[in-house]
Amino acid sequence: MKKQLLAGAFVLASFLTAQAQVLESENFNNLNVGDLGTDTTGQTPGQGNYYTLVLNDGDSSDFQVVANGKGGTNGLQITGASVAQGTTQETDNARYLWKNGLADAWAARTSGNDIISAEFDLYASVTAGTANVQRIELYNDTYSNILGGFVYYPATGELRGIATYTGSQGSGNYTFTLKDGGLILNADTWYRLAIVYAPSTGAVAWASNDIIVQDDQGNDVELFSGVTSTNNVGLEPAELDIIAFAGAANTVAASVVYDNFSVKAIATPDEVLGVKENVSLANLSVYPNPANDVVNVSVDALVSNVAIVDLNGRTVKTVKFDGVSTATVNVSDLASGVYMATITSDKGTTTKKIVKN
Questions:
Q1: For the residues of 3-34, what is the DSSP string, one character each?
Q2: Whose CA is closest to 307, among 266, 344, 356, 276?
Q3: Given 49, 193, 280, 300, which residue has the most CB atoms within 10 angstroms?
Q4: 18 pLDDT exceeds 60?
Q5: Which residues form the signal peptide (predicted)?
């Protein structure tokens, strides 16, 4: 069992065209409403082959298949403790849920699909007065490191990222704010979230096309933020867990509902969360590429915007145009590396890879 971020880039060896491959998925619609299982010792799986563990102050009713999942379908509800967290794992009053088999599925993935994404829906319910904390975490095979995950605080609706990392306080499990001032989700709202992890670099990102934040230029963009963890370089994903921690001085239990889990092996971060489909713009040319100082975009359309995104998912430059067929973007201030340029025009949007010398 177990238990227990953007500075670097999602550097990939190459942009491969391997098709994303589903390693695990569950929408709970074929499971019976009620207790997920009967064994909370982590030894015998319940419905959907999920294992559950409660070491103290809890039972199987804390893991429920419920009829109020996303869109009125079935979902998974996990309820934390109504008592305070203890000082050891045996007395921490936490609830753990996981499924076996991810390590083998990852090992058998299609060549080139060397990034893992774990996507799911979370219902942002808020419970006043609780100290419960719910975490969704991707582990390596020894459970020594959190490769990436989310932390949700039901008392406030705040969402953070989490990963094993070396920071100002040394090496350990760090949480990361996803927005200046903290990312507070709207109460009683469904959010589609994704954890993205690249073992080759230790890069982890947190993404959501339901959450709009501002980039460094003040533009509204969908959440895609993360860090590179030197602690996690080379560590392969082995298990995805949901954990409900009681919290210190807690007296109120909180329930959180999840739905539509999908764990995939993918080739590029662009495949996360069903990225909006690009269109093929006629006679599109992006040159010079590689570039030193400027990149020109020429196309049979009227260009209104060019956004350049690094492989960590951060928008590093946005240039607006007043409907031009040839747009020039100064890239002299960008660091050498690979970027994705998203070109928006009156005939649609497309994305092209560019290399800055």
A1: -----S----S----PPPEEEEEE-STTSPSE
A2: 344
A3: 193
A4: no
A5: 1-20
